[in-house]
Design a protein that fits this description.
Elements lengths: L13 E5 L7 H9 L5 E5 L18 H14 L1 H11 L12 H11 L3 H8 L6 H10 L3 H13 L7 H10 L4 H13 L14 H13 L3 H15 L6 H12 L17 H8 L4 H13 L9 H4 L3 H9 L5 H15 L1 H9 L3 H9 L6 H10 L6 H10 L2 H23 L2 H5 L1
Length: 425
């Protein structure tokens, strides 16, 4: 639209719509508006207003409210909405194994800040990641998009600063000027949310598009993405939970390729040190999940990672507070696949009586955490350990917990089967 300097004369009433008006030079917009009249009307749409009111006649829209109105309208005609969404993403539906349309709608309404982002999530925009990766590569913005995606996963979907992305991209050989040009293109193409929100529209898109970007790279490009991965994994400001997610996603980005070799094992020492010095139960869980994921990155795992730290693991295993039991189970099960004797020794070194006391105090809230630990360590518990554990259990407390869980399950099924008004009365 930047070439439009006049509006054609016509006997009919016409509305001229200028999309993405914020990308159109101001003098072009002013000239078009000056020529408008009762027969030639001009409406321009802008993603954001830079400064001031945006000009005479500007109407500022509340994006979150608009999203709510759109979502409400789509819910009111669920059948038609489902048919349209399935044309974009056939994994959404009411069949067994499908993702619930209601869940997708709720998530899109909650997570999106702008209507186009809502539509992206609702329609499963990550299904079009190959096209996005190809377009970014042609525009020279693919490495920058990879940095955005990696940072988004590693930060648990936090909004990065431009300086943080610049720092990552410098490690990959991308200058600040080139990075800013790429970010501008990505924002225009709606592959990045906006100038104040340098994330992709959805975290799932980040994971999928990273795999597509890597598949389209030559050796030089893949080394650049590897530098981005190493930069993120050595960043102490990023949470262990996010780094675990990044490690896991890279392991399974594409069944045709193995991308874990892009990570330099020698660069992972700071990450390992972070894992061994965590304090809270929540941190312990993610530390153990990181240690588990490193089986795909560090040769000689588990001994190359766990040797010399068995005393720390024994302390963690002896105190399976919520939610660390999940991490205990996952790590032990992974160790058992490589070295059954080591897995047995790790469990055997823990305090059987202490674990039994924690299990005996289980509540409805902590039952899942502890059941995951017990389930995944079932084949790694030495006989002597099991005997001590069994002797220390408070069986009456566990029976009472079982009754509570049964009652809750029955109540949940009733709530699903009966109108809510019946239960409310």
């Amino acid at each position: 639209m930047s070439s439009v300097t006049w509006l054609p004369s016509t006997d009919q009433r016409i509305l001229y719509l200028i999309d993405d008006g914020h990308l159109t030079p101001d003098h072009v917009l002013r000239h078009a508006e000056a020529q408008s009249n009762a027969a030639r009307m001009v409406l321009s749409t802008h993603n954001a207003i830079g400064h001031g009111s945006g000009g005479r006649g500007a109407i500022a829209m509340d994006s979150k409210r608009a999203i709510g109105v759109i979502a409400s309208g789509l819910r009111s005609n669920r059948a038609e909405t489902l048919a349209v969404v399935r044309r974009a993403d056939d994994r959404v539906g009411d069949r067994p194994g499908d993702e619930s349309l209601d869940h997708r709608l709720d998530y899109a309404e909650k997570q999106a800040d702008r209507p186009w982002q809502f539509c992206f999530i609702l329609g499963g925009g990550w299904r079009r990641a190959t096209t996005a990766a190809d377009a970014a590569r042609i525009a020279g913005a693919d490495i920058t998009l990879a940095a955005v995606a990696i940072r988004q996963m590693a930060s648990r979907d936090a909004r990065p600063s431009r300086d943080e992305l610049h720092s990552m991209l410098e490690d990959a050989g991308v200058t600040n000027v080139a990075a800013d040009e790429a970010l501008s293109w990505l924002i225009r193409e709606r592959l990045v949310v906006g100038t104040s929100d340098l994330r992709t529209p959805h975290q799932r898109f980040s994971s999928v598009v990273l795999g597509r970007i890597l598949a389209g790279q030559d050796e030089v490009g893949r080394r650049a993405v590897g530098a981005l991965l190493n930069s993120a994994l050595t960043d102490s400001a990023l949470p262990l939970a996010g780094l675990h997610f990044l490690l896991h996603e890279v392991r399974f980005l594409d069944q045709r390729y193995i991308w874990t070799g892009l990570v330099d094992p020698a660069r992972l020492a700071p990450l390992l040190n972070r894992c061994w010095t965590v304090v809270s139960a929540d941190e312990r869980m993610f530390a153990m999940l990181v240690l588990h994921e490193l089986s795909g990155y560090i040769p000689g795992w588990p001994h190359s990672v766990l040797d010399g730290r068995y005393d720390v693991l024994a302390q963690w295993f002896s105190d399976p507070q919520e939610p660390s039991g999940y991490g205990i189970g996952r790590l032990t099960n992974a160790v058992r696949e490589k070295d059954e004797q080591l897995a047995n020794a790790l469990i055997g070194a823990s305090d059987a009586e202490g674990v039994a006391a924690t299990v005996s105090r289980a509540s409805v809230a902590t039952a899942y955490n502890l059941s995951e630990m017990l389930s995944f360590t079932g084949n790694s518990r030495p006989e002597a350990w099991k005997a001590r554990f069994s002797a220390a259990l408070d069986r009456q407390a566990l029976v009472a917990l079982g009754l509570q869980l049964a009652e809750r399950r029955i109540a949940l099924r009733l709530r699903q089967a009966l109108p809510s008004v019946v239960l409310d009365r």
